[in-house]
Amino acid sequence: MFKLFSKNAAITTKELENDLSEKTILDVRTPGEYRMGHISNAKNVPLDKIATYVGDKETPVYVICQSGMRSKRAVGMLKKKGYTAINVRGGMSQWTGTIKGGK
């Protein structure tokens, strides 16, 4: 059930870029979008497959997409599964750090 006033944890792309060490980053864009360029240690788990994600529930996961909308949805789904999930606001469209693949 969608909660209109639920507040999910979020950080900016700049905050993530400033500390990438030891972070679990999930990129919920499509495989094609991911191949066009992604954060080097990000794992591609498309939004339509996020329900199948299995990871360490003790470690926070940072979720990114292109603009922040799909990642926000994914965060809600992951939280229901017991993960500490943090949305990366602005997504890859705001990312100014190094990318792997693509261009």
- CATH class descriptor: Alpha Beta
Structural class: alpha/beta
| Widest sheet: strand ordering | 1-5-4-2-3
Integer count of domains: 1
Low-confidence stretches: 1-5
Domain Rhodanese: 19-100
InterPro entries: GlpE_sulfurtransferase (IPR050229), Rhodanese-like_dom (IPR001763), Rhodanese-like_dom_sf (IPR036873)
Protein name: Rhodanese-like domain-containing protein
Pfam family, one: Rhodanese
Task: Explain this structure.
With 103 residues, this protein is of the alpha/beta class. It has one domain: Oxidized Rhodanese, domain 1 (3-Layer(aba) Sandwich). The chain contains 4 helices and 5 strands. It has helices spanning 13-18, 31-35, 69-80, 91-94, and strands at residues 10-12, 24-27, 42-44, 61-64, 85-89. The chain has a 5-stranded parallel sheet. β4 (61-64), α3 (69-80) and β5 (85-89) form a beta-alpha-beta unit. The relative contact order is 0.28.
What key phrases describe this protein's structure?
Oxidized Rhodanese, domain 1; alpha/beta; five-stranded parallel sheet; disordered N terminus; 103 residues
